[in-house]
Design a protein that fits this description.
The chain is of the alpha/beta class. The protein contains 11 helices and 26 strands.
């Protein structure tokens, strides 16, 4: 099967001349890529979402296998004061979203919390007090703490206006590194078991590799050279975007290079602790591409989660639980896309068209939930490969001795014929159990379909084979770790690639100063080259859209409390 040329707007993978060839899939069940992280499948929540603890919402999150919840929410974290449950500049926060309510939600879901301490307008003492309240006074045992959100977006690069609150006089990476050490010291003095995370620029995405006037090195090298021995994990946000859906669906291939760059930095600066420093991807979704709620984004989700896990990331947190949109829906491959970064509908309206009723799962929800058919925490990821980039594959040895194989057909129009071969595992003969999600579906479908060695994948679909070992075959030994591969080529910074959700939403030219406006307190919504200004309301953007007041975290799509 040949990779088709992308059409204008959404793009496509189309067959070449003649009948489509069978795609070969190889699974090496004897070669381990590591175990599925215990709290790997994560989701962003925030102080703008009063519905995050609703019974229906927590039930949907639990069913989707969500094992981590991030709080208090994107760029708002650098304005948020946890003790008073207020924004630093008096901004509005919805009811029922204080820290204890969030922890009750996490408990209902069975999810580990990851908290973002206020770096932009807070202090090390404020963060240490939060650790004391959470882990000493309340016994919540919160383990993972990020120090700030996208701190590199504080205006140090570009035109000085940035999107991230940072009230420090010195906004350089050197200052962040020194302050990061102070935060770590203060917080670990309260609870030595907490893990402290450093905000890094995503390799290959602006402002990675940039040096502002007066800097001797870029953000990542500077921060880690100062704080490398004081941290336990590094944080990146993964918003690869794409001009077309085909572009978006090919972005997981970039993850190995990003991981290689991060591991090189960690090895250089973390000393004897380098091997234990984790990589956390605390925001990701399909922003910057045509699809946010439609099927392409659903296919992107599990492929992205699994690829990061296979590359050693311990957490991947999707943006967002509820999000809403001030933009009119679009049509992507014949499907309505509500331009909403949430996995559940916020029930909002824009451009004279309304989303489905509140809490209706978007396709992205089902993409994430598809992971529950593939793996449980602690299962062993094993080596697999596809003979054509139009079909992605991930494979996992389950704790009961079976083998699960996820196949993602990225073509919006054409079914894919696949043939599968196995090493280190002999599957039982006959029809196999499959769990699938296809375009237009409103649930996962379990059926007996095809065999372990031959499957037909519907267009734009996720299909997971749940294989049992052949009768009489010995249970395979524990998969052995893959030999250390030749390191993926570290990525280099490239103009034109967004580095954060903020850039993806406004369409700012990468590597160029983000445009600003003097048109007042209302912000425009984010088409390419759109002029943007900041509201004075608590670090939130306020947008009048179709008669609906839309609140967004600073240059973030907002959480709707109504």
């Amino acid at each position: 099967m040949a990779v088709l040329a992308a059409s204008a707007g959404v793009g496509a993978l189309a067959p070449g001349a003649g009948a489509a060839a069978t795609v070969g899939i190889s699974v090496d069940a004897g070669t381990s890529l590591g175990t599925v992280p215990s709290s790997g499948v994560g989701l962003n929540t925030g102080v703008g979402d009063e519905h995050m603890g609703d019974a229906k919402v927590t039930s949907l999150m639990k069913a989707a296998g969500v094992r981590q919840l991030r709080y208090p929410g994107g760029s708002g974290a650098d304005d948020f004061h946890w003790k008073t449950h207020t924004m630093g500049n008096g901004g509005w926060i919805v009811p029922n979203t204080d820290f204890d309510r969030f922890m009750a939600t996490a408990k209902k879901v069975g999810a580990q919390p990851i908290l973002t301490a206020n770096y932009g307008s807070g202090t090390p003492q404020e963060a240490a007090d939060w650790v004391k309240y959470a882990n000493v006074d309340k016994g919540y045992g919160v383990k993972y703490w990020e120090i700030g959100n996208e701190v590199y977006g504080n205006g140090h690069y570009g035109d000085g206006k940035g999107w991230e609150t940072d009230n420090h006089a010195d906004k350089s990476p050197k200052a962040y590194g020194k302050n990061l050490v102070a935060y770590s010291k203060a917080m670990k003095a309260v609870d030595p078991k907490v893990k402290i995370g450093a905000v890094l620029t995503t390799p290959g995405f602006w402002p990675d590799a940039e040096k502002a006037p007066g800097d001797t090195a870029d953000w990542n090298n500077t921060v880690l050279s100062i704080a490398g021995s004081s941290i336990d994990f590094v944080i990146v946000h993964w918003y690869p975007g794409g001009k077309t859906t085909a572009d978006l669906l090919n972005t997981p291939s970039q993850i190995a290079g990003a991981r290689s760059s991060l591991r090189s930095l960690i090895a250089k600066y973390a000393g004897s602790n380098a091997a234990s420093v984790e990589i956390a991807v605390t925001e990701t979704d399909a922003v910057g591409s045509p699809a946010l709620t439609s099927q392409a984004a659903a296919l992107f989700a599990p492929d992205t989660y699994m690829t990061w896990f296979e590359q050693g990331a311990t957490h991947v947190d999707w943006w967002n639980l509820h999000n809403g949109s001030g933009e009119a829906p679009t049509t992507v491959h014949g499907e309505t896309d509500y331009q909403d970064g949430g996995i559940l509908s916020a029930g909002t309206c824009a451009g004279g068209k309304c989303e489905p009723p509140r809490e209706t799962p978007f396709p992205t929800y089902w993409g994430i939930r598809s992971l529950t058919a593939l793996a449980k925490p602690g299962d062993t990821m094993v080596k697999s490969s596809s003979g054509n980039s139009s079909v992605a594959v991930h494979a996992v040895r389950s704790s009961n001795g079976g083998l699960n194989v996820m196949l993602i057909n990225k073509s919006p129009k054409d079914a894919a014929q696949v043939s599968l071969s196995y090493a280190g595992f002999t599957p039982a003969a006959g029809a196999v159990t499959t769990v699938s999600y296809g375009k237009g579906d409103t649930s996962l479908t379990t059926a007996k379909r095809g065999t372990a060695v031959a499957q037909t994948l519907p267009p734009y679909s996720i299909t997971t084979l749940q294989l049992k070992p052949a009768s009489g075959t010995a249970v395979a030994d524990r998969p052995t770790p893959a030999s250390t591969p030749t390191a993926a080529t570290p990525v280099v910074s490239a103009a034109g690639k967004i580095g954060s959700r903020a850039q993806g939403e406004i369409g700012a030219p990468v590597g160029q100063p983000t445009p600003s406006s003097t048109s007042g307190d209302l912000a425009s919504t984010g088409a390419s080259n759109t002029v943007v200004t900041y509201s004075a309301l608590g670090g939130l953007l306020v947008i009048a859209a179709g008669g609906v007041l839309v609140l967004r975290g600073r240059r973030r799509r907002g959480l709707h409390g109504k």
